[in-house]
Structure formats: C-alpha cells, structure tokens
Specification:
Blueprint: E1 9-12, E2 22-27, E3 31-38, E4 41-46, H1 57-65, E5 70-81, E6 84-85, H2 87-92, H3 98-107, E7 110-120, E8 123-124, H4 130-142, E9 149-151, H5 158-167, E10 174-179, E11 189-195, E12 198-209, E13 216-224, E14 230-236, H6 241-251, E15 280-281, E16 287-292, E17 295-296, E18 299-300, E19 305-309, H7 329-336, H8 340-348
Parallel strand pairs: 1-11, 7-9
Antiparallel strand pairs: 2-10, 3-4, 3-5, 5-6, 5-7, 7-8, 10-11, 12-13, 12-15, 12-16, 13-14, 16-19, 17-18
Amino acid sequence: MDAIPSPMEALLVEQLPEGEGWQYEPKWDGFRALAGRDGDEVSLISRSGKSLGRYFPEIVAMMRAVQEHQFLLDGELVIAVGQALSFGALQARLHPAASRIERLARETPACLILFDCLNIGGHDFSARPLAERRTALEAFMKSLDVQGLLLSPASEDPVQARRWLARAGGALDGIVAKRTDLPYRNGQRAMLKIKQYRTADCVVGGFRTTAGGKAVASLLLGLYGEDGRLDHVGFTSAFPVHERVALARKLAPYAGGQGFTGNAPGGPSRWNGGKAKPWTPLRPELVVEVGYDQVTDDRFRHGTRFLRWRPDKDPISCDRSQLIRELRPADLAALTGRDAAEHRADATRP
C-alpha cells in the first residue's frame, strides 16, 4: 500500500440533509484512527498523522489477528470504563511509560469502531463511491471473529439517524451524513455533521480577567455535587469585547467568599506550564445557562457557550444531575451489535 493518507473530514451544519443519496452514521466520541496492515507491518494513525500504535497495543494485536493481511480502514477508538465510554480513559493512554500503557490495555481495553475502508486485500476502494466501500466493509467485517473490532451502523433513513440519538440518551457526539456516490476524499471536509449541544444551568463561582485586569476574560462555572460542595466544572468566555468591562462591573458586588467549596480552578497543570492561573472568587448567587457538547470526568470538555442569565434559578438547584454522561456500553452494544463491556471482560479474564 502507499503512504497512509489523511482521513476525510466533516463540515459542521445546523441540520441533517435529507433526500435520496445520503447515508447517515453515528458520530462517535473517541480518537479518530486509520488502521492499516501490509503483511507484518501494522499501523494505527491519528487524525493529525501521529502513530497511536504504542498507546493501543491491544488494537495492534487485534489487527494482527485478522486473516486478511492487507487493509486500510477508517474508524474511531473508544474505551468502556464502568458504566460509560470514557474519553478520559483514551487521554490517559497518551503516556510515555510503556508499563503503564500495558497495564491500562489489560484493565481497560479499547475497541475500534469501523465505518469506512480505503483498501481491502490489496484492492483500492478510495476512488469508489461510498455505497461500494460500505458493501466491501460489511463483507470484510462478516469474515472477522475478532472481539473489539466493531462495525458502525449506517442507514439511508434520517428517521433512523434520529433514533440513534434518542437511543443513546443524547450521549452520542452527533450524526454524520455522507453522499453515497462520493469517493473517499483524503483530508477534505467532504462529509456533513450535526453535533449534540445540551444546556445546563451553572453557578458562577468566579471569574478571570483580561491582561489589564479591568475586563472579564471568562466566567468560571460550578455545579453542586452529592456532597453539597460547589465544584468547578468549566468556563464560558465568548463575550463581545465591548461587553467585557460592563460584565466586570456586574460581577463586582458579588466578589468575596470562597467561591468554589469543592474542586477549584487555578491549580498548576501540564496545560498551563505548571503555573497557577489567578481568578477572583464570587459568592455563589449568580446562575447562567450555558450550552455544551461533551462531558469528560464530570467536567465540560470544551469551553461552553453563554446563553443567558438565570435570575429565576435557585443556585443550590444547579447540580450534576443535569449533565448528559458519556455513552454507556449498553448503548454501544445496541448500536453496533457488539458489547464493549464483554470485550473488557474477555481481555481481563486469565
């Protein structure tokens, strides 16, 4: 096979396209990966072109167990931990210590959910339409008996796509739409996607200022846990420049107190070069409604969108029960017909 290309990307849209010639698939919330084999050589390449093989040795072993010795497939890496598919567990794999990776591979083995093919058995499918690639991928997957390699569902019915979202309890990352007559376009945004956005009412437990200290850079968001403490869960910062000074004046009367009584922001981490970022605590009396996409380890994975102030909302009612958790293994089994939890049990069985 030639050098592994960049994966085909998706363009974010407001709503699903409908009509003849569209195929819909779940948008999985994991690590995108191109999985290739050419004889004894196996590769697992990320969206950015980096090798993931050393971080997911169990996936490499699965690929070596496939009877076919030449293929290049497109898919998503996921890991089931407890009752959820955990993005945090995927991030934990990106560790320099081989011993730790080997232990995690045994304790929390990954699955690879496959949804496209570029090459099977030395036959190049990349220039063929999606309809032919899907048929080839389904035939390839039927020939496998490798636990942990899963086939992503696909449908030409938009109603079915919406059912996937409903069945997954809102925990899927969204839906991808692809033209059935489209070839595989390396590195191009040739697919369409709609993302799941949810809302939550959060307590403003503090804020950070801009460099001059006179304007608000971000609001620090909190939710109450079962222990009654206010934990920092994320931030929102998308305010127009002309509103940031006025926002500082709005927050000034609430300054003082501890702010967050549980997990607090501002500690040193690998993301801020080991330096703590200063912030100003506020009395937990202000509530905002924000939009978010995903939750990882009980925190908003990305920055949230400010929607509105909620003066009608009692701050103490802003708790974690609002959050949509990550996809459950049972939901994955319902969508793919294979169970990630059973795969974990098989991998850890002596």
